[in-house]
């Protein structure tokens, strides 16, 4: 694979060299706790380590020692809870730059470092948005990424109609492979799978982004209950009576809800946020209408949206599911569909 960032962000190359707790070595068992959270000493140390590679941008295999003033602002892309994303150019090369203000709050800082860490170590996954490098200044952290065309929630908003099943088939493959990669290669779960964290580029390539609240797995389980958007959390993460740990199957639930939202054009629960969360915990999980969708599609959604996490399929099983196998074998032109819907919605 063409590897665009030799920096590997935080001093990482093909093999992570830094003995940092920020970087789990794939060769060791996953057992680095989510160390950086809430521990200001750790956060400071990790930040100092990361600063060593600040300004190294690797584009088309060439590493440039860049300065922030060489980034030319082109336009705003959007804002999230952690920062702002803008389109910039560096020596005529277009990038999306996510700027996150530095803060003295070590939890917030650990989110920024986690986002940076995961995107950097995932350079070899074609289903995760690519990082060219980053800048750490006195005031903020700026992550330079490949510039995608849009995220799926904005696209839904814009086209105001559901995505066709064949497109959902293709994007399911990419997202399941991205999540599977994070789990098997880095022992990480995403914890914030939702349409706004799935990006699409103009050639129809689909990628996962936004790793600020990703969690390290300890003996395959994650422990922080608070991280993530509650509306996409599995019932086991919302239920106050549940113990504090959960596993990748919580991301499988979030994936299932995302598929329903894309297939129907709307988030499946209504009411206030509290009512929606209560429905997730107590009501029957959403299902697709079998008169409108193929049996395989209805089935994969049912397999993801099981109230009992142990009944949900894991990634290996999802990758073997008939819905995924069917769409892997079909030549679907996502690029053409995307160009058409963008044109129709102008
Ligand atoms: N690499 C990228 N290329 C193009 N657009 C991007 C890229 N990364 C993020 N965006 C867009 O920028 C906007 C802000 O993204 P960001 O990840 O900061 O927040 P979010 O995911 O929307 O919200 P939150 O962080 O609260 O979950 C989103 O609309 C997202 O689609």
From TrEMBL:
Enumerate the CDD domains for this protein: PKc_MKK7
Region Disordered, annotated ranges: 1-35
First-tier enzyme category under EC: transferase
Q: Name one GO molecular function term.
A: MAP kinase kinase activity
**What are the EC numbers?**
2.7.12.2
* Alphabetical list of InterPro entries matching this protein: Kinase-like_dom_sf, Prot_kinase_dom, Ser/Thr_kinase_AS
Q: What is this protein called?
A: mitogen-activated protein kinase kinase
């Amino acid at each position: 694979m063409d590897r665009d960032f030799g920096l590997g962000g935080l001093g990482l190359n093909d093999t992570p060299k830094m003995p940092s707790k920020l970087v789990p070595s794939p060769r060791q068992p996953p057992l680095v706790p989510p160390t950086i959270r809430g521990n200001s000493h750790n956060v400071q140390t990790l930040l100092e380590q990361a600063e060593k590679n600040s300004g190294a941008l690797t584009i088309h295999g060439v590493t440039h020692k860049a300065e922030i003033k060489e980034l030319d602002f082109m336009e705003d892309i959007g804002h999230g809870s952690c920062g702002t994303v803008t389109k910039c150019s560096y020596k005529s090369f277009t990038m999306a730059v996510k700027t996150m203000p530095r803060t003295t709050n070590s939890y917030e800082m650990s989110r920024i470092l986690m986002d940076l860490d995961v995107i950097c170590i995932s350079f070899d996954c074609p289903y995760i948005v690519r990082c060219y490098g980053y800048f750490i200044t006195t005031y903020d952290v700026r992550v330079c990424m490949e510039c995608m065309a849009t995220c799926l929630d904005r696209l839904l908003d814009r086209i105001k109609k559901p995505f066709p099943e064949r497109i959902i088939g293709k994007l399911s493959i990419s997202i399941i492979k991205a999540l599977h990669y994070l789990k098997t290669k880095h022992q990480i779960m995403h914890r914030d799978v939702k349409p706004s964290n799935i990006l699409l580029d103009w050639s129809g390539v689909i990628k996962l982004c936004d790793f600020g609240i990703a969690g390290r797995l300890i003996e395959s389980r994650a422990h922080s209950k608070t991280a993530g958007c509650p509306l996409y959390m599995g019932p086991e993460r919302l239920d106050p009576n549940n113990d504090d740990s959960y596993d990748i199957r919580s991301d499988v639930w979030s994936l299932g809800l995302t598929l329903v939202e894309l297939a129907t054009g709307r988030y499946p629960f209504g009411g206030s946020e509290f009512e929606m969360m209560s429905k997730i915990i107590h009501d029957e999980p959403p299902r697709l209408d079998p008169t409108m969708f193929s049996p395989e599609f209805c089935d994969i959604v049912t397999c993801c949206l099981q109230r009992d996490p142990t009944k949900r399929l894991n990634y290996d099983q999802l990758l073997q599911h008939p819905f995924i196998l069917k769409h892997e074998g079909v030549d679907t032109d996502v690029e053409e569909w995307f160009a058409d819907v963008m044109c129709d919605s102008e």
